[in-house]
Hints:
This is Mariner Mos1 transposase. By secondary structure, the protein is mainly alpha-helical.
Amino acid sequence: xxxxxxxxxxxxxxxxxxxxxxxxxxxxxxxxxxxxxxxxxxxxxxxxxxxxxxxxxxxxxxxxxxxxxxxxxxxxxxxxxxxxxxxxxxxxxxxxxxxxxxxxxxxxxxxxxxxxxxxxxxxxxxxxxxxxxxxxxxxxxxxxxx
Length: 146
């Protein structure tokens, strides 16, 4: 709710598999949490990611269990319930619309600026909106329609 903790551009040609995701969690996300939100790792993490196969892989669930993070369930067949999809990405698209990029570095810098331009207060609204969407999905027998 306090904004983006980690912005990690995946190198071109990289296959996102369980081992890659596990490494990002261990080597990038966890240190970023320690740096940007001191004390949060000790007080407890509520962690949410969608139910993509790479997120459900044993290697990933093992590393998250080792972190002792509490995992929030994601409804089956509802990839559109990820807060990035309905909150962060639309804000970034507004900022990036109409631009052309010459290099990968140009894209990386532009997305960094776009993320910084997202109003910090909007993250609280996004989480509340997400909770309402999750509740709507639960009330609709596990299906989500917006």
